[in-house]
Structure formats: structure tokens, C-alpha cells
Amino acid sequence: MVKCRHHSLLYVNHTLAIIGVGNMGSAFAYGLSHMKPAMILRLCDGNSEKLRNFPNAKHFTDPKKAIVGTSAILLAVKPQSSKELLNDLSPLLKDRLVISIMAGISLKTLGKLTGSKRIVRAMPNLPATIGLGCTGWCATPAVSKPDRTFVETIFGAVGTQIELNDESKLDAVTAISGSGPAYFFLLAELLGIKALKEGFSPQESAVLARATMIGSGVLAANDKRTLTELREAVTSKGGTTEAALASLKGNHLDTIINEAIDAAIARSRKLS
Predict the structure, then answer these.
(1) I need a labelling partner for 195 at 20 to 30 A (CA). Which of 78, 186, 218, 269 fits?
(2) Using an 8 Å Cβ cutoff, are 171 and 268 in contact?
(3) How far is CA 130 from CA 7, 157, 243, 254, 268, in A?
(4) CA end-to-end span of the chain
(5) Which of 124, 162, 139 is nearest to 31 (CA)?
């Protein structure tokens, strides 16, 4: 109880250091600055130009200076450059909540590199850059309830968040939601290519493909029907959609998708 109460006091000032202000780091900085304006953000990146987009945050190019006085750190750097960075920072991280969105680095490895016992490992996806992301995350046992509430706030600022009770599920999260946007972009791309072959201009083809995907996504997000029910609502018996779906099933689209996701899961496990 004393431990949890101590951790909750750490978040009175809502101070977060974000190390790395690339696409994802920027997404969290934007999301938090708009959704949680009271939160104090300390942003750190070797390229000071990236920091100018956040005039209300405190700017640093030195990670050690950035994390002084913070209760939590969000690591948004490339995995291949993390080892040297974390070895350098580890003496300062032992008593802090460390949140990592670096792909392929396990909780165990993060614990060794940082010296902290309070570690969160997460996998956000690209739509986080517009506040519509999906983040799966898991935590070590030492991460307290107040810690977890704080983590939910951070990930909630860029979209939907799901806490997992098993770290191994992050490989599937990586394959399904992390890589998932690429699957949808590929489908939209293929629709556009087919439209070109049917005689539409490049502009018309892009409109048809993008508008179809956007409208379908918004409908799926706001309609209470299941995805199966929505698909059935588009599919009239003996109609064009039924013919197209029969072709997809005949060509084993389900097998293709499952094998693609299995390949991504295997790759994620190998990287870990």
C-alpha cells in the first residue's frame, strides 16, 4: 500500500519525458499536449529542429538532462540505437516508470538495460499520428495501479489502448494492429490499380479507393453491428458483392491472411 501511495504522488505534476521525437514520439507529444494540457512534457531529440513543433514543451538534446525531475520516461527511439543510450541512462532510471514503444525489445531485456523494475512494453501503430491509433501493452508486476492508470492516459491520448496479461501476445498485436494498416493500404492500393485498368483517371481511382476505405472504417467504428453483420448488409443474395466474395473465398483469402499474419508473428518473435 505504501508503495502504491508513493507512486501516485509521483504523478501529481504529471511530468513525462519523451526520448525520441520521430513519427511516434511526435504523435504522443501532440496527443498529450491536446488531450492532457496540464501534463508537463520534456521532449528530447538529437535533432533540435523536431522540437520546434512543440513550443509549450521543454526541449532537450541531452537525454540525461531531459529525464531529471520526471517520474516517467517514454522511449521512442529506434531499437538498434537503444542499447548504448540505455546503458548510459540506466543509473538514472532505476526508480522510474519506463515505457518503451521500441519494437522487439522484451521486458526482461529492458529491465537489464535500464535497471528499472517498473517497465511497460507497448506496440502502437501508425494511426496514432492522427489520434486514432491502437496500442497493445503489457507491464512487469512492479508496475502499480497508479502507474497503469498513468500509462492508460498516455496511450489513450493517441487512440485506443489494450492492456495484455501475457507479453507473448505482443507479437500477435504487432502482426495484427501494428502491421495491420499496411494490409488496408495494400487493399486500397489494389482497388485503385483496378480502377485505373477500368479506365478511370489516377485522380478518380484514388478517390474511389480512399473514400471507400475511409467510409467503411468510419462505419465500422460507429455502427453497433458486428463486422460480420456489416459485411452481410452489403452482400445481397445473387448480387455483385456476393460474386466478388465467392471469388475471394474460392481463392482462399482466409488462408492468405492467416499465413501473412503468421509470417509477421514469426518475424516479431525472431526480432525479440
Answers:
(1) 218
(2) yes
(3) 31, 10, 36, 30, 25
(4) 34
(5) 124
Phi-psi region at 104: left, alpha or beta (left = phi > 0; alpha = psi -120 to 50): left
Q: Which CATH architecture has domain 2-170?
A: 3-Layer(aba) Sandwich (3.40)
CB 182, CB 149: distance < 8 Å: no
What length does the chain have?
A: 272
151 near 144, Cβ under 8 Å?
A: no
Query: What are the C-alpha distances in Å from 133 to residues 17, 40, 76, 108, 124?
Result: 20, 22, 15, 26, 6
C-alpha cell of 261?
499474419
Q: Please list, residue by residue across 4-29, b when 16 or more beta carbons sit within 10 angstroms of its beta carbon and e when fewer do.
A: eeebeebbeebbbbbbbbeebbbbbb
Distance CA 122, CA 163 (A): 9
The residue with cell 507479453 is 167
User: 85, 78, 34: which is closest to 64 by C-alpha?
Assistant: 85
- Is the pLDDT at 4 greater than 80, yes or no? no
- The span from the CA of 83 to the CA of 68, in Å, is 20
pTM of the predicted protein model: 0.86
Where are the chain's structural domains? 2-170, 180-271
- CATH node for 180-271: 1.10.3730.10
